[in-house]
Specification:
By secondary structure, the protein is of the alpha+beta class. The chain has 3 helices and 5 strands, in the order αβββαββα. It has a 5-stranded antiparallel beta sheet with strand order 1-2-3-5-4, covered by helices on one side. The longest helix has 22 residues.
Length: about 140
């Protein structure tokens, strides 16, 4: 099986603008950023997506975001950021190696969030019951 793009970055086989690295994670600038400073945080141990990632690795990724987000904000002059995860192809995941985005936000930057929908009468309770039944 071919090594994935992010594994090649981890192994320094292809270049990336790495902004942070520790034993478990790597963070680098996105080559097609939504905004300046748009950064990806990835685990060094390959996993396909969020649900395939070990809980301790998720914890390490969260720690990395907590460490680097303030530095990103200061470096680019942003006051806010989004943390996003595209999990699965329908959700927009293109590279199947777990990754989180830190996207700095600026006033009137044009980056839009989804509009949201309303539940039908009783649907919220029904969905909640279905989810709880699966836990």
């Amino acid at each position: 099986m071919d090594e994935c793009l992010f594994c090649k970055i981890i192994n320094k086989q292809i270049p990336a603008e790495i902004v942070y690295e520790n034993d478990d994670t790597l963070a680098f600038l996105d080559i097609k950023p939504n905004n300046i400073g748009h950064t990806l945080v990835i685990p060094k141990k390959h996993s396909r997506d969020f649900l395939d990632t070990e809980p301790n690795v998720i914890t390490e990724m969260a720690h990395t975001v907590h460490v680097i987000a303030p530095a990103i904000l200061t470096a680019v002059g942003a006051s806010s950021f989004n943390i996003t995860v595209n999990n699965g192809s329908v959700a927009g995941q293109v590279i199947f190696h777990t990754h989180w985005y830190i996207i700095p936000r600026f006033e009137n930057d044009g980056y839009k969030m989804w509009p949201g929908n309303n539940y039908k009468e009783g649907e919220m309770r029904e969905v909640g019951e279905k989810i709880r039944a699966q836990l």
